[in-house]
Design brief:
- By secondary structure, the protein is mainly α.
- It is about 65% helix and about 0% strand.
- The protein is built from 12 helices and 2 strands.
- The chain has helices spanning about 10-35, 45-65, 65-90, 95-115, 135-140, 145-165, 165-175, 180-185, 190-215, 225-235, 240-265, 275-290; strands at about 130, 145.
- It has a two-stranded antiparallel sheet with strand order 1-2.
- Helix 1 packs parallel to helix 6, helix 6 (about 145-165) runs antiparallel to helix 11 and helix 10 runs parallel beside helix 12 (about 275-290).
- The longest helix is centred in the first third of the chain and has 29 residues, at about 10-35.
- The protein is globular.
- The protein starts with 8 loop residues before the first helix and ends in a 19-residue tail after the last helix.
């Protein structure tokens, strides 16, 4: 291959961007998939994502280790998940309303505590150079993969196995499909749901750390751009299937990478419109997959959106 990629430049840039942009969607959607399998929906993941980005960046800056920053972001995500799970366990409390409130709380706290972190430079996460075999810089750049992307793929495969082949997955699905049946079998409802929500919070926190410590690799107040909310819609689109969440994350990641890809090849007019591609794609998917009979096919029956 020669350095002049010609027509291959845009697809290659989209591929590289897809591998980078899809990772936050993947982590948030997998975490929310587990949460919703338990019969609870968490719309507060956008706030957890933003706070995780701030906490991860701050943790990496203070400790000098980006992986400790990722751990800190995940632990703060667990706290947000536990708070959501506890509040939703109270009588007559709506999980959607709690999620919106925690989204605003997490975002506000991140902006407040993150002010001193806008200027300092924290150590960033490394990349795996899968394109080292090529002598073309564009190929090497496109095939740089962060370890979290591969970890996310492994988690998706593991979750599919857990849901279908383990007792933990069976109990989780039973709690999500029929709380009465799970209660009759002697399984605790609230601990399962709180644990599932805490796991979803952890995944959202890690997704936020990825944003601030790898791509785009800095902390600022506009770092998320609604990715946490899009990921919740992505779970519904994937019909609560972890591997489908992986595929959908790649699809949304490719749409999100379209604008930067055009910019990288010199398109300077109108490329900003392509930055709206993930949001337009969300609307189109919701429109074309809408159905009176199959809209909630595969949905856990205890979810508030099914009642």
């Amino acid at each position: 291959m020669n350095a002049d990629l010609g027509l291959w430049a845009v697809p290659l840039a989209v591929l590289g961007g897809m591998l980078r942009v899809s990772t936050p969607f993947l982590f948030v959607s997998l975490g929310e998939c587990v949460t919703e399998k338990s019969g609870r929906i968490n719309l507060g993941l956008e706030g957890t994502l933003v706070f995780g980005a701030m906490a991860g960046y701050g943790g990496a800056y203070l400790t000098g280790s980006p992986w400790l920053g990722v751990l800190a972001a995940g632990l703060f995500g667990v706290l947000f998940g536990l708070l959501h799970g506890f509040l939703c366990s109270l009588p007559k409390v709506n999980d959607i309303a709690v999620g919106i409130a925690l989204m605003l709380l997490g975002t506000g706290l991140a902006f407040f505590f993150g002010k001193p972190l806008i200027q300092p430079a924290a150590p960033l996460l490394p990349a795996i150079p899968l394109g080292a075999w090529s002598n073309v810089p564009q190929v090497r750049a496109a095939l740089e993969v962060n370890p979290l992307f591969l970890i996310g793929l492994l988690i998706a495969i593991a979750l599919l196995f857990v849901f279908k082949r383990t007792k933990i997955g069976l109990v989780l699905r039973m709690v999500g499909d029929s709380a009465d049946a799970a209660r009759a079998m002697g399984y605790p409802i609230l601990p399962v749901r709180i644990g599932a929500t805490a796991f979803g919070g952890f995944m959202a926190g890690v997704a936020g750390a990825y944003l601030s410590l790898y791509y785009p690799g800095s902390w600022n107040e506009a770092i998320s751009s609604g990715q946490g909310l899009i990921a919740v819609a992505l779970v519904i689109f994937a019909r609560w299937n972890p591997l489908a969440c992986f595929g959908a994350a790649l699809l949304f990641g490719g749409a999100g990478a379209l604008g930067p890809a055009l910019q990288s090849v010199g398109v300077t007019e109108g490329y900003y419109l392509f930055y709206a591609a993930p949001y337009v794609l969300t609307l189109l998917i919701l429109f074309f997959t809408s159905s009176r009979t199959k809209a909630l096919e595969g949905a856990p029956r205890e979810l508030s959106i099914t009642k």
